[in-house]
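in:
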C-alpha cells in the first residue's frame, strides 16, 4: 500500500503530519517476484505522525490487529492486519539515528519521507 493510501485511510481519525515508509530491499523483491508474487512495490515498515498525541494513542489502540481492507472481502488488503504501536517520546531524529549505520538506507528513507510528505 502506498503512503498516500495510508494517509487517506487514517486522515479520518485525525490530522496527519509526516509519513515515512521504507521500501523492501531489492533482493527480497526479486525473490518474491521470481516465486510468483506480484510486481507492486511493497514496504517493510513505516512511521506516521499525528498532530495530536491523544489521537495517535487512540488510533494505535483502536486499529491494532484489525483488518486493513475493511468490510470488503474482495479487496486486495482484506486479509492484511494493521500492526500499530504508539511510540512515546519518539522524535524523527531518532529514526535518522537508527538508520545512520546504513548510509544507503538513510538516503532512501529521506527520499521516501520527502516524496510521501508532498502528497
Amino acid at each position: 500500500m502506498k503512503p498516500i493510501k495510508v494517509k487517506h485511510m487514517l486522515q479520518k481519525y485525525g490530522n496527519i503530519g509526516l509519513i515515512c515508509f521504507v521500501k523492501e530491499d531489492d533482493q527480497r523483491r526479486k525473490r518474491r517476484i521470481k516465486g510468483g508474487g506480484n510486481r507492486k512495490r511493497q514496504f517493510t515498515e513505516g512511521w506516521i505522525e499525528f498532530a495530536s498525541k491523544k489521537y495517535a494513542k487512540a488510533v494505535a489502540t483502536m486499529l491494532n490487529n484489525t483488518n486493513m481492507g475493511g468490510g470488503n472481502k474482495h479487496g486486495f488488503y482484506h486479509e492484511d492486519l494493521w500492526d500499530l504501536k504508539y511510540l512515546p517520546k519518539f522524535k524523527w531524529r531518532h529514526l535518522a539515528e537508527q538508520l545512520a549505520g546504513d548510509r544507503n538506507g538513510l538516503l532512501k528513507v529521506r527520499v521516501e519521507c520527502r516524496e510521501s510528505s508532498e502528497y
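note: The chain is about 40% helix and 15% strand.
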